[in-house]
Write a structure and sequence with these properties.
By secondary structure, the protein is mainly alpha-helical. Helices cover 75% and strands 0% of the residues.
């Protein structure tokens, strides 16, 4: 009988030691940042959902931003076309000025195309691009169509 009690007491201490080590491990994990690693999938999904859903202001601003960038590309194209028409009857001095302006407008157009394409590729912005807007703009194209 004494041996059975002694064995039970030893088993109790062993089980208590295992539980104590497990508890110590869990506390250590949470204390030293392991909880962040454990909960990362859940937090990532929540962050993604919050960025995608966003506030109404974010959605509206992002939606309009795509139109604004596409319109900026079209404005540069229209100005380039007007300058090319003016160039036909311009003096030599004015032709030089027009050429410089066209070069600057082409660079501005390319910047706008790159900004549009960059924002269109961002996962949290892409859902707010209008379905009639192109997925990407082509920097080499002469004319850009913003709405189909």
């Amino acid at each position: 009988m004494v041996r059975v009690r002694e064995g039970a007491r030893l088993g109790t201490w062993a089980a208590g030691g295992v539980i104590g080590l497990a508890l110590f491990y869990v506390i250590g994990v949470f204390a030293f940042g392991g909880a962040g690693w454990v909960t990362a999938p859940f937090r990532g999904e929540a962050d993604k959902r919050e960025n995608t859903v966003g506030s109404g202001e974010f959605r509206q601003t992002t939606y309009e931003e795509f139109f604004d960038l596409c319109a900026a590309v079209q404005n540069a194209e229209g100005t380039i076309q007007a300058l090319l028409e003016e160039r036909k009857a311009a003096s030599e001095t004015r032709t030089t000025q027009i050429d410089q302006s066209i070069t600057a407008l082409k660079a501005t157009r390319i910047e706008s195309v790159n900004a549009y394409n960059s924002k269109a590729a961002q996962e949290h912005r892409a859902p707010f691009r209008d379905k009639d807007l192109p997925y990407r703009l082509d920097a080499a194209a002469e004319r850009t169509t913003c709405a189909n």
